[in-house]
Amino acid sequence: MVRLYHGTNGDNAASILSGNLRPSADGRLGAGFYFATSKADAEAVAKHRQHPFLLTCEVELGNVYDWDARGADKTWSTLGFHAAKAMHPPWAGIARPFQEICVHDLSRITIIHVEGE
Asked: From the CB of residue 81, how many other CB atoms can be counted at a distance below 10 Å?
């Protein structure tokens, strides 16, 4: 289990708090639930999206696909991997690359804390 952070828009808060965390249909690493390893980075992403809302989660990563070492392949979840990790280029007010993780299966995620608008 690792602690990861998800920054989003507070407009999604009601849905998330009712237990309906929805995966991205497609993102840089493919479909799934996106997290930052740094709380500060997730907070910056949340602020970028306006009405900041931050989730702190415990995540069972399982077998992790290393996007940077193995190459860009959005089909990682069909290859026996439970998560993918990569360095995200500077974005959302974060001036340096930051670690992001995409998890394919909601059952691997437990929300342990929420904060925001």
From this structure: 20
* Enclosing H/E stretch for 44: helix 39-48
Per-residue pLDDT tens for 41-55?
A: 999 999 988 888 899
In the block, tokens 């993102």 appear at 27
CA dist., res. 100 & res. 68, Å (int) = 11
85's tokens:
């990790």
DSSP-derived pairing of the beta strands 2-9 and 83-88:
unpaired
Beta strands in 38-95 (DSSP E): 52-59, 64-66, 83-88
DSSP SS3 for 73: coil
CA dist., res. 72 & res. 83, Å (int): 13
Q: What is the pLDDT of residues 75-102, one digit of tens each?
A: 999 999 999 999 999 998 899 999 999 9
Q: What is the pTM of this model?
A: 0.92
